[in-house]
Structure formats: C-alpha cells, structure tokens
Amino acid sequence: MLDFTENKLSKSLSRRVEKRFTWQKEALKTCAAFFCLLISAFLNFFLLTVIHDIVPREPLPDLVFMLIPQQRWAWVVGDIFSTLNAVLGFTCVLLHKKRLIVFRRVLLLGGIMYGLRAVILGLTFLPPSFQNRDEICLPQVNRTAMYATEITTRFVTYVVTLGLTSGQDKILCGDLMFSGHTVVLTIMYFTLLQYTPRRLVYLRYLAAPLTYIGIAALVISGGHYTMDVLVAYWLTSHVFYAYHQVFEMPRVERTKAPLSHLWWFWLCYWFESDVPDGALRNEWDWPLPGPICIHHFVQRISDKLQ
C-alpha cells in the first residue's frame, strides 16, 4: 500500500514538473516572438523618422480622393477602431485556454507583417497623401549637426505613443506603403474569427464593421492611399491563413508542404514545434488563479458557446 502511494505521488510530481517545464518553454517562445515584433515595430518607427525628410510633398492621384473630399476627423476614427479591435482581439486571446500559443502567433504575424513593411518603407518613398499636407505634416529639416537629436526625439515620441498620431497637431509623414493600421485591424479581426468559440457570432458581427469602417476611415481621412490599405489587407490575409494552414498540419508533413517554401516558414518553425497537430479547440479559461467562482462562470460560458 505504501509503495502504491509513493508511486502515485511520484507520478503526480513528475507530471507537475513536466507541466511547469512545458509552460516555461512556451513562455520563452512567446517572449522571443514579442522581441521579434518589437524589432520590426522599432525599425518602422526609425525609418519613418528618416523618411519624413526624404519623401516628396506632392500627393499622388487617388480615385477615392477624387470622389470624396478628405476628412481629417476620420483619422481619429481609424485610430479608435484600431484600438477597439486590438482590445477585442487581445481579450479573446487572454481568455483562450491556449492563450500562450495564440498570443505568440499574433505576435509572430505582427512581426512578419511589420518586417515586410519596414523593407518596403526603406526601398520606395511615397509622398504624403494629405492634400493639406503643410497643415498636417511636420516641416522637413536639413541634415545638420543636430539631426541625430531630431531623429532621436522623433523616435522616442513614436515609441511612447505606439505610432498613434491622432492626438498630435502635426505628424511625421511618409510611412504609407503599406498601412500599419490596416495590419493591426486585419490581424485582430482574423484572430477573432479564428479563435472565438463557434457560437460567439455576435462578437464577429461587431468586429467586422469595426475592421472595415476603420480601414475606410484611414483612406477618407487622407492618411493613406487606397492602395496602401488594400495591399495591407491582402498581404495580411494571405500570411495569416497560410500560417495557420501550414502549422495546423501534422508535424511530420509540415516541412514537405508547398507552403514550407515561404520565406517565413523556417523563422516560425521553432515557435510551433511543440504545438499539437490540428486546429486549436476554442475553449475559454480564466487566466488568473482565482477567484474560483469566476473560473466556474467562464467555464460554463465556454461550454455553452461550443
């Protein structure tokens, strides 16, 4: 009887140690994914601080601008809707039972998209799309001895505000191709579609207008050309669903799949090496240790939404 009890305790302890090790490994991967996103975002901010003084000032023709006068208030709408979509998306991630995996995927996808954006920003310089650009864009400065100080000030400002510029009188201009706001809106929208319980359709009905009205507002405001938001949406949708398609395959088949030839596949392979095969089951779970009543409440809701 004593041997049986000791064996049972040993197995229980072994499971706890294994579970703790797995959690630590997943947390490490999530931190690495966050670091990747941080590098991509900071690179975008830095490039904008430099590009602002390089881009020409005459806007390109755009069909939407010809049909609809630019409305500066719409830029605030785009910022607000991006923030709301992000709050909804990250709430969904936080409540998901496999939150570390989902959160890591969101971070990686953001890192991929902002990395692509940084490459394009550094290669081709499009003029600001604002028609009243002198009222909105900060003046361009010459590269003097104080230029490094100016760049540093701009960079810190964008890091602190996370790139949200609706509250500023004048902004840096030139980060157009492609729209970072649209990337955020689209990733958060697809995250809600992919990771909410099957019966939570009302949340999806809320997220869809937030996404598409937010994207439209970015163009109507004159903050982006129409092609900026379209390219951002198309690229993000392709990368998002290609990522999920390849990494929801059985692990033994992933490296042989046609999608494994995509440039980002091997960058993400390590992050997905311990994730179970197939799509994640969209179950909710309260992320904190207590209170127990909240755990039971969230569990009941999750069961009803399956």
From TrEMBL:
Domain Sphingomyelin synthase-like: 173-244
Localisation: Membrane
Record's keyword terms, sorted: Lipid metabolism, Membrane, Sphingolipid metabolism, Transferase, Transmembrane, Transmembrane helix
Annotated transmembrane regions: 30-52, 72-94, 106-126, 176-193, 205-225, 231-247
GO cellular component: endoplasmic reticulum membrane; Golgi membrane; plasma membrane
InterPro entries found in the cross-reference section: Sphingomyelin_synth-like, Sphingomyelin_synth-like_dom
One term of GO molecular function: sphingomyelin synthase activity
GO biological process, one term: sphingomyelin biosynthetic process
Membrane topology term: Multi-pass membrane protein
PANTHER family on file: PHOSPHATIDYLCHOLINE:CERAMIDE CHOLINEPHOSPHOTRANSFERASE 2 (PTHR21290:SF23), SPHINGOMYELIN SYNTHETASE (PTHR21290)
Record-stated family: Belongs to the sphingomyelin synthase family.
Name of the protein described by the UniProt record: Sphingomyelin synthase-like domain-containing protein
Organism placement in taxonomy: Eukaryota, Metazoa, Ecdysozoa, Nematoda, Chromadorea
